[in-house]
UniProtKB/TrEMBL annotation, chain A:
Recorded topology in the membrane: Lipid-anchor
Subcellular location: Membrane
Originating species: Orenia metallireducens
Protein name: Spore germination protein KC
GO terms of biological process kind: spore germination
TrEMBL record, chain B:
Predominant location category: membrane
Location within or outside the cell: Membrane
A Pfam family hit: Spore_permease
Species in which this protein is naturally found: Orenia metallireducens
Protein name: Spore germination protein
TrEMBL record, chain C:
Pfam families: GerA
Organism: Orenia metallireducens
Family (UniProt): Belongs to the GerABKA family.
Transmembrane segments: 315-334, 385-403, 410-431, 437-460
GO cellular component entries: membrane
The protein's name in its UniProt record: Spore germination protein KA/spore germination protein
Length: 380, 373, 523
């Protein structure tokens, strides 16, 4: 009896081991590194009168990696849905598409205006997709970005991720990835954003932040605005600089400041059923260059510069907030989350989308200069 | 009744390890979603409440077990309730464990098939898992204790590391408000659901007679409860802080998604979710094999068999059929909810009744001498 | 039965018949008759010498010395046995004394060797002669003298070849049992050291010495080992491996359950921990029992070097073992199942390397591992002189050629090389054999189920290890069951002065290390 069981187990094991349903060799797949999603070109679109999408993918050719030429292959296909387009792509390929290494998903501005949730669903449902991939919005077409040929890296998607990661670590580019985009879509207290890019053959340019209402693209913040947006949320800054000029006509008074340490405190306050959002920003700055001969050794000069930083920052931040409140009317700041966290009873009563444009926001900036650089001005 | 020699086979540390490994199983993979399902941000409170409830139940079971220091629950049930009623209740407990084990294996296989081996038939994954589980359950209790002891840290460390690293992408504002704006009813509902991931501690009812130093069983029982509780609370906090409550409700496997959202310091490996699931096989396998051991042991005691081993093998095909019975993941989750309600009732009410009965008997009848070696 | 022929069952029966015959035979009081009996039993062998002479040159008292040429020291025979019996013994001694008095005279005053005793039984006499002693028969006595005269050519003490260390004693065990026990005695002047002798092998009658320290070793384990050794039924014991296979607990497990060593210092170190050493005549490999897995990556050198370095080295060894166990399986899992785990650029470069390779990754891995096994086996049997050449040809030329021809990918060559080198980090040879077997099993599992299969395989291995026992000691101590005191000498080796207690796993009588002599005052 025991022997029979043993033999049965062995036969069973042999059967199980001989099957290998998931085995596919690394070179026998087509790893997709970048996906671009566009609407089909205008004239075709008019003819068909349907929202057909064009999916462009970027596929590396590993065998050519050593030579460094012809490293990527770009193909595109059209379909009613993203999944359909990708199915069509699969028909053109010898091996199975693999999305486990997907680095960037790029949507064109046009498609984003119609709401990208339905196009994202494919990526959301697939267990292969990384939540840390980048979701990007192209100013013109996604295809342009996919097709661009940056010089420093042979594979464009990898160049792009390096560029974005570097931007994030230095505080220039907001750290909004696919996962964060999903989270912001689900969270009622904040609205989604995405990094916006523009490509021109060899150059890929980071141009700002796409602003969404729900999943629909409503507009964008440009690069300096994004800078202030970032600082308001307390992201420290490593390379972006703040240029101060008292009098724009004369260059003499110009100062370049680097904001090294930024800490922000967001505190909502409920007064008479109205929310006042208080933003307290503390900035530690460093003088990078100055064109006049201010003596930075003198305390009053430093204080003066500090005041100027504070005024400038407050002015700019208020402008950006104003823009989101009146122009876009979407809470990309996540103020709603703070209201939900601190005043849950109030939150349950209101609809935040309606409330956000009406709330009062007060900004308070405190600047400190810690480092003045290596030039000593006291001697003169 | 068959007397199996039970003295000094499991050390206290192994006893803790068995509790930890049995609790830490498939529950923690879905716990963050279950915790916030009704209670939103108060899910943290729900989890803490659930863990405290499990502690109370655990202590009651240990207390009960110490009254009959050389008997498993299946033996003293027959003493307390009489032979027939005792056997019926024992059978009921075994059935509950059985279904629980089957669904734990199925749930995890479901995750493996979704995330790791999408083309492999789920039957194959289940068979492999069952064979592994049976291999351990087939061995003696000493081996069971040793294997559990060996794996405690291998189970704890990855999940601890994961949660600590994931806080980097978290927003503490998502966690608030914990205490305000939630109805008690919802918190309790979530508590009920979260309780599922603490089930498994009731295995002590089987293990207790084998422990070497009975005096320490309460201390080490609490230790065994503490680690999974802390881990569960941390995982829930981390998940809420990374995803926020609203996104969390959308995620079928929140803990799995948590790994996908976490950036690890890049070693040779970039995405560790597959590796995490692979190590989580260990957590799951210990849960299942501890329970299967309990089932076989209990079955042997009810049926007056000499060895638990024969039952292990004959139960395998049944387990397989049970694990395959839900048609899809949603049906499975619904069934798991039912099982966890049964578990809640069984582990909360039954031990109290038994303890009261034992107290009454203890006063009237013979005093049970405490073991003191 | 064919099976019986292979296992030697029949032979054992035959031996038992022979034994009965020999046992029946007694000694006569005539030298001539005794000579005939012995010749009858021992046969006409050219190396058996029957030296006839007359005691005190007296023709009426013939005597005979029987010995095996080559096993005896001729100086002893000539100067200390034959010469005194011929010249120092006077004729009056023989005529005036009774036979009993003559015997006393010979043993006490005449023969000048260090050991001489009387024996009545023929079989004992013959065994003595066969193991190198000489037998003296004299007229009128129905007994024989056994005179110690062992002396044969043996390999001199040399450095152990299988366990080399940088720092540590250079002497190793030899094939001679007495030399080996003396090695241990010299290092351990403890009166508690016991050397129990047993002869095993129905025909070979190999001497086996079981060494332990009384009061330190657990008596139950010692008894168990003694019993198991005594119950061995085998024709001959040619190496300690025979003993090992007869007394280990689980013969079909890939893991070794006894340690073997060529190093006296290692043997003594283990004796001090309460273990038992089994020295077998004719082999330099001494067995140490019980053995737990933990010990197989310990080297005697670990205790001579400083603690920080040693801990680091042990970590390196464990990593080496892990690599050699799981790396090929991991490679298969990563390249044919979960390549999303690899960083994109790395994955692409592996894919680039594999682009020309015709074989799927798992077959590639099996092929390369198979080739390495062939090379390894070949290099063991090659004469030392060409061994290194073959290593170069096999390793370098085959490897480069295979990569250049696009038969294997460069990544695979790295994996195979790491695997092989990793397996040599273990100071003990036997454990790396176990890992070799398991590696292939894990590779099969990984090529069917990827990481899931790999983990399942590792779990099954660890269950097996947890269920193993070596003479009642769980194989995975001190990890499972965990013993905090023993963990001081695990992956991290604590300073020697911190390791105050003997391993608790042995359940020794004197657990504290320094108090070995004060027997029984502890506990």
């Amino acid at each position: 009896m025991k022997k029979v069981i043993k033999i049965m187990i062995i036969v069973l094991l042999m059967n199980l081991l001989s099957g290998c349903w998931d085995r596919r060799d690394i070179e026998a797949t087509v790893p997709v590194l970048g996906v671009g999603i566009d609407f089909i070109e205008e004239e075709d679109r008019d003819l068909t009168k349907s929202n057909k999408v064009k999916v462009t993918i970027q596929v590396p050719i590993p065998a050519n990696m050593e030579q460094g030429e012809d490293v990527v292959w770009i193909i595109s296909s059209v379909g009613e849905t993203v999944a359909g387009a990708i199915d069509n792509l699969q028909n053109k390929l010898n091996q199975e598409l693999f999305f486990g290494h997907l680095q960037v998903i790029i949507f064109s501005q046009d498609i984003a205006k119609e709401g990208i949730n339905k196009y994202l669903n494919f990526f959301r449902n697939s267990p292969q997709i990384r939540r840390l991939s980048w979701l990007l919005i192209a100013e013109d077409t996604a295809e342009d970005i996919i097709k661009s040929e940056p010089k420093l890296e042979s594979i464009q998607s990898i160049y792009l991720t390096h560029m974005l990661n570097n931007g994030v670590s230095t505080g220039r580019i907001p750290d909004i990835r696919l996962g964060d985009f999903f989270i912001r879509l689900s969270n009622p207290g904040e609205q989604a954003t995405a990094v916006m890019l523009k490509a021109d053959k060899e150059i890929i340019d980071y141009i700002g932040l796409a602003v969404f209402e729900g999943d629909e693209f409503v507009g964008s913040l440009d690069q300096p605005e994004t800078l202030y947006y970032q600082r308001t949320l307390g992201v420290p800054n490593d390379t972006s600089n703040l240029v101060l000029a008292c009098d724009p006509t004369t260059e003499i008074d110009r100062l370049t400041i680097k904001m090294q340490e930024v800490s922000s405190k967001l505190q909502p306050e409920l007064k008479e059923d109205k929310i006042i959002m208080k933003i307290k920003l503390k900035v530690e700055a460093k003088v990078l260059e100055q064109l006049n001969k201010n003596n930075l050794g003198r305390e009053d000069v430093v204080h003066q510069i500090e005041r100027r930083i504070e005024n400038k920052l407050k002015r700019e931040i208020d402008k950006v907030i104003e823009k989101t409140q009146s122009k876009f009317q979407t809470d990309i700041w996540g103020f709603g989350e703070y209201v939900r966290a601190y005043y849950p009873e109030y939150w349950n009563k209101i609809k935040w989308e309606e409330e956000f444009p009406k709330i009062k926001i007060s900004t308070e900036v405190k600047a400190y200069i810690r480092q003045v650089g290596m030039i000593n001005f006291t001697g003169r | 009744m068959i007397k199996i020699k039970k003295e000094g086979k499991v050390t206290e540390r192994q006893f803790s390890a068995i509790i930890i490994n049995t609790i830490l199983g498939v529950g923690i993979l879905t716990l963050p979603r279950e915790a916030v399902s009704f209670a939103d941000n108060a899910g943290i409170i729900s989890v803490i409440l659930a863990s405290l409830l499990s502690l109370i139940n655990l202590l009651i079971i240990i207390r009960l077990g110490l009254k009959y220091p050389d008997k498993t629950i299946f033996e003293y049930l027959q003493i307390l309730l009489g032979k027939i009623l005792g056997k019926i209740i024992s059978f009921f407990i075994i059935c509950y464990w059985f279904v629980f084990t089957a669904f734990v294996i199925r749930t995890f296989s479901e995750l493996i098939v979704t995330a790791v081996l999408p083309k492999t038939p789920i039957e194959v994954v289940i068979i492999i898992m069952l064979l592994l589980v049976a291999y351990l359950s087939y061995k003696d209790i000493q081996v069971l204790g040793r294997v559990n002891e060996l794996y405690v840290f291998i189970v704890i460390i990855p999940i601890l590391l994961l949660t600590i690293l994931s806080f980097k992408r978290g927003h503490m504002i998502y966690v608030l408000p914990v205490f305000r704006g939630h109805s008690m009813v919802n918190i309790l509902k979530s508590t009920g659901r979260s309780y599922f991931s603490f089930l498994g501690f009731e295995i002590v009812a089987i293990i207790l007679p084998f422990i070497t130093t009975k005096k320490l069983s309460i201390e080490y029982g609490i230790k065994g409860w503490l680690i999974p509780s802390i881990l569960s609370v941390i995982v829930v906090i981390a998940s809420i802080s990374v995803f926020g409550v609203f996104e969390l409700k959308n995620l079928v496997w929140p803990t799995f998604e948590l790994i996908k959202s976490t950036q690890f310091f890049a070693l040779i490996f970039e995405r560790l979710e597959v590796a995490f699931i692979a190590t989580w096989v260990i957590a799951l396998f210990t849960t299942a094999s501890n329970l299967l051991f309990g089932i076989a042991m209990g079955g042997a005691q009810i049926l007056n068999l000499h060895k638990h081993k024969t039952l292990v093998l004959s139960l395998l095909p049944l387990l397989y059929l049970f694990a395959l019975s839900p048609r899809n993941a949603y049906e499975l989750f619904n069934l798991v909810d039912i099982v966890s309600i049964v578990g809640l009732i069984l582990t909360t009410i039954l031990p109290i009744i038994l303890l009261i009965l034992a107290e009454i008997r203890g006063k009237g009848g013979k005093a049970i001498d405490e073991e003191s070696n | 039965m064919f099976w019986d022929k292979i296992t030697g069952k029949k032979n054992i029966e035959n031996i038992e018949e022979d034994k009965k015959e020999i046992n029946k035979v007694g000694l006569e009081d005539s030298v001539r008759k005794n000579e005939e009996i012995i010749k009858d039993l021992i046969g006409e062998s050219s190396d058996v010498v029957f030296r006839k002479f007359n005691l005190a040159k007296d023709e009426e008292s013939p005597a005979m010395l029987i010995y095996i040429d080559g096993l005896t020291n001729t100086d002893i025979l000539n100067l200390h046995i034959i010469k005194p019996l011929l010249s120092d013994l006077k004729e009056e001694d023989l005529t005036e004394n009774s036979i009993e008095e003559q015997v006393d005279l010979i043993t006490e005053s005449i023969v000048t060797t260090h050991e001489i005793k009387l024996e009545k039984k023929m079989d004992k006499l013959i065994t003595a002669a066969l193991s190198g002693d000489s037998i003296l028969l004299i007229e009128g006595l129905s007994q024989g003298f056994i005179i110690a005269s062992k002396g044969w050519d043996a390999r001199s003490i040399s450095e152990p070849t299988t366990e080399s260390v940088i720092r540590g004693p250079r002497d190793g065990f030899t094939e001679n049992l007495r030399t080996n026990t003396s090695h241990i005695r010299r290092r351990l002047r403890d009166p508690g050291l016991r050397v129990k002798g047993v002869a095993v092998g129905e025909r070979s009658k190999t001497d086996i010495a079981i060494l332990y320290i009384e009061g330190v070793a657990n008596p139950h384990i010692v008894d168990e080992i003694m019993n198991r050794i005594k119950s061995i039924k085998v024709d001959g014991v040619l190496e300690s491996g025979y003993i090992e296979q007869f007394i280990e607990d689980s013969p079909f497990s890939p893991f070794p359950q006894l340690q073997h060593t060529e190093r006296p210092d290692k043997a003594v170190g283990n004796l001090l921990e309460g273990k038992v050493a089994i020295v077998v005549d004719g082999t330099p490999f001494v067995l140490i029992a019980p053995a737990v897995f933990e010990q197989f990556y310990h080297s005697p050198e670990d205790y001579y070097n400083r603690t920080v370095i040693v801990s680091l080295l042990r970590v390196v060894r464990v990593i080496g073992l892990m690599i050699s166990l799981a790396l090929p399986a991991l490679y298969i899992a990563l390249t044919s199942f979960h390549f999303e785990m690899l960083p994109t650029v790395f994955a692409l470069s592996i894919a680039g390397g594999r682009a020309q390779v015709p074989l799927p990754a798992y077959l590639e891995a099996f092929l390369m591992e198979g080739i390495i096994e062939i090379l390894r086996e070949a290099s063991v049997h090659l004469p030392n002189v060409i061994g290194s050449t073959i290593g170069i040809v096999g390793g370098l030329i085959l490897g480069t050629a295979a990569v250049d021809a696009g038969l294997v990918s460069p990544a695979m060559v790295i994996v195979v090389a790491l695997t092989t080198i990793g397996s040599f980090t273990a100071p003990t040879y036997s454990v790396s054999n176990a890992i070799r077997i398991l590696r292939f099993i894990l590779m099969i599992l990984a090529s069917s189920f990827g990481l899931y299969g790999l983990v399942v395989g590792l779990i099954a291995t660890s269950i097996h290890m947890a269920s193993l026992k070596s003479f009642g000691i769980p194989y995975l101590t001190p990890y499972a069951p965990s013993r905090l005191e023993d963990l001081k000498d695990s992956i991290i080796r604590f300073p020697l002065w911190k390791m105050n207690f003997r391993p608790t796993l042995m359940r020794t009588k004197n657990s504290k290390r320094e108090e070995a002599k004060e027997e029984g005052d502890k506990n």
